[in-house]
Amino acid sequence: MHKKSIKIRNEVVGKEFETNNCGKCFIIDYENSRSVVVMFYKPQFVVKCRMINLVMGKVDNPFYPKHHNKGYMGVGSYSIKNREAYNCWEGMLRRCYDPKFTKRLKTYETAEVCEEWLNFQNFAEWFYNDNFAACRDSKGNRYELDKDILLKGNKLYSPENCCFIPHRINSLLISCNSRRGSSPIGVTKNKGRKGFVAKCSVNGVTNKHLGYYDTLEEAFQAYKAVKEVYIKEVAEDWKDKIDPRVYQSLLKYEVEITD
């Protein structure tokens, strides 16, 4: 090592720097201005960088959770250039950990991402090995990441619980709690009269009228019967274009009054 570099090394080793996005780090070795070794405090990770980048704060810790304070890129062959996987991963993190999103959609307030998938490398590996991640519907729309069709009520995004499904099927099972208020799914009070009305969107008909009923339970049972038959019909229509596990889940799907 050149004498000048040795002098600089003695001066800078141990010196602390604040990075733009990944917290603080400090120099643990210095060869020259193009080869500086730093260690991040939390999480601990060693990186080689240029001195100019360090001074400007442009040094990255791939294990720092800078994506919605939870996710991190990790070390591997996948990067932000893998846009399909990255956008899907970012969207998943946003749904679970962005306060603006969870405030608007209450069903995601208790949703979480498993530890394994907080690392983008792991999620991307799973994404590119899934047979349906790259699928599109007849309108050219990508299939959507779903966490609870295989396990109803599931709140954890994980390899075991997640799959990709077309928007047609995803929208089929949305309960729209915020819009219907306290009434069970498919049921509304009969305005101006006693009793309840049952409605169900089927075959392109929005809120198809199913009849008037004296009790809330009777109205719900009418909705349930029609909805479950319709879900099975949709399952048969998509049978050859969806994950076999999704097909089986749709055949067994039960509409509950608590949905």
Number of strands: 11
Main sheet, how many strands, which sense, barrel? 4 strands, antiparallel
The ordered H/E elements are HEEEEHHHEHHEEEHHEEEHH
Total of DSSP H or I helical runs spanning 4+ residues: 10
Class from secondary-structure proportions: alpha+beta
Low-confidence stretches: none
Helical content, roughly? 25-40%
Distance between the termini: 70 Å
Structure report:
The protein is built from ten helices and eleven strands. α9 (216-238) packs antiparallel against α10 (244-252). It has helices at residues 3-12, 51-55, 83-97, 99-104, 115-118, 120-129, 167-172, 177-180, 216-238, 244-252, and strands at 16-18, 24-32, 35-40, 45-49, 112-113, 144-146, 156-157, 163-165, 187-189, 196-202, 205-213. The model has no long low-confidence stretch (mean pLDDT 92). By secondary structure, the chain is of the alpha+beta class. A hairpin with a 2-residue loop joins β10 (196-202) and β11. The strands form four sheets. The protein has a four-stranded antiparallel β-sheet with strand order 1-2-3-4. Strands 9-10-11 form a three-stranded antiparallel β-sheet, covered by helices on one side. Strands 5-7 form a two-stranded parallel ribbon. It is elongated.
